Automatic annotation (TrEMBL):
Official protein name in the record: ATP synthase subunit b, chloroplastic
Protein's organism: Lapiedra martinezii
Gene: atpF
Subunit structure, as described in the record: F-type ATPases have 2 components, F(1) - the catalytic core - and F(0) - the membrane proton channel. F(1) has five subunits: alpha(3), beta(3), gamma(1), delta(1), epsilon(1). F(0) has four main subunits: a(1), b(1), b'(1) and c(10-14). The alpha and beta chains form an alternating ring which encloses part of the gamma chain. F(1) is attached to F(0) by a central stalk formed by the gamma and epsilon chains, while a peripheral stalk is formed by the delta, b and b' chains.
Pfam families the record matches: ATP-synt_B
GO terms of molecular function: proton-transporting ATP synthase activity, rotational mechanism
More about this protein: In plastids the F-type ATPase is also known as CF(1)CF(0).
InterPro entries from the UniProt entry: ATP_synth_b/b'su_bac/chlpt
UniProt keyword annotations, A-Z: ATP synthesis, CF(0), Chloroplast, Coiled coil, Hydrogen ion transport, Ion transport, Membrane, Plastid, Thylakoid, Transmembrane, Transmembrane helix, Transport
The keyword Thylakoid is assigned to this record: yes
Record lineage: Eukaryota, Viridiplantae, Streptophyta, Embryophyta, Tracheophyta
Gene Ontology CC: one annotated term: proton-transporting ATP synthase complex
Coiled-coil residue spans: 64-98
PANTHER family per the UniProt record, alphabetical: ATP SYNTHASE SUBUNIT B, CHLOROPLASTIC
Membrane topology annotation: Single-pass membrane protein
Family, per entry: Belongs to the ATPase B chain family.
């Protein structure tokens, strides 16, 4: 095992072989190394880089297309919504106008119906007053007539004696008999 370790350790002590080795001059080796690395990267990485860039370009283009389609769809929906809003606003204005005119018609109808009802109530009141007046007048007439009749009967009873009473009855019977002969 010591041979193996010694061989690794001894690698660092090898003298450089004439054409291959490490150049420690940074200014001289850096542009060469960079151009070699860039050349290798461009030669071998060009296909991979082109594929990556193409994929990225396709994703960007599809995203743009999708965005454009979404924008067109949003614009169409916006136009539809605006048209619907205009339609709803016109319907609302129409309902508002119809509502106001309907309210005015109902108001006029209610006023007319109320005035007609008041007129009928006034007529009923007047008829009731007239009826009550006639009834009161008839009651007063009946009372006056009854009092007059009672007064007349009282006077007749006080003035009539039996002989006068007999003559009045005989005269009335005579009048009735004469009327009977005329009708025969």
């Amino acid at each position: 095992m010591t041979n193996l370790t010694d061989s690794f350790v001894s690698l660092g002590h090898w003298p450089s072989a004439g054409s291959f080795g490490f150049n420690t001059d940074i200014l001289a080796t850096n542009p060469i190394n960079l151009s070699v690395v860039l050349g290798v990267l461009i030669f071998f990485g060009k296909g991979v880089l082109n594929d990556l860039l193409d994929n990225r370009k396709q994703r960007i283009l599809s995203t743009i297309r999708n965005s454009e389609e979404l924008r067109r769809g949003a614009i169409e929906q916006l136009e539809k919504a605006r048209a619907r809003l205009r339609k709803v606003e016109m319907e609302a204005d129409e309902y508002r106008m119809n509502g106001y005119s309907e309210i005015e018609r109902e108001k006029v109808n209610l006023i007319n119906a109320t005035s007609y009802s008041l007129e009928q109530l006034e007529n009923y009141k007047n008829e009731t007053l007239h009826f009550e007046q006639q009834r009161a007048i008839n009651q007063v007439r009946q009372q006056v007539f009854q009092q007059a009749l009672q007064g007349a009967l009282g006077i007749l009873n006080s003035c009539l004696n039996s002989e006068l009473h007999f003559r009045t009855i005989s005269a009335n019977i005579g009048i009735l008999g004469a009327m009977e002969e005329i009708t025969d």
